[in-house]
């Protein structure tokens, strides 16, 4: 299991730090390799969350999830199950909107650091 997790983490770094950041840079009118220098000695983390089904969610006390938060880094790459329950805050009215799971797809959240970088371009 450890080897599988390590390989998955390696592939996510390649996807996120290399390919996605290249595309993001190009979409900002920059060269594709603009952000490479920031990731030479990067710190990445992997978090595996599993939530068992709650037989009576209406009776549950407290938060059954990761909880409301912002992603403080550059990118978050998420793999959802078929149940989902990821919600994103909508700026226009402050409401939380459920992100519908898409089979065999990742969800990419842009974090606070990327938001700061994009305002400087």
UniProtKB/TrEMBL annotation:
Organism: Acacia crassicarpa (northern wattle)
Stretches assigned to the Fe2OG dioxygenase domain: 42-121
Protein name: Fe2OG dioxygenase domain-containing protein
SUPFAM superfamilies listed in its UniProt record: Clavaminate synthase-like
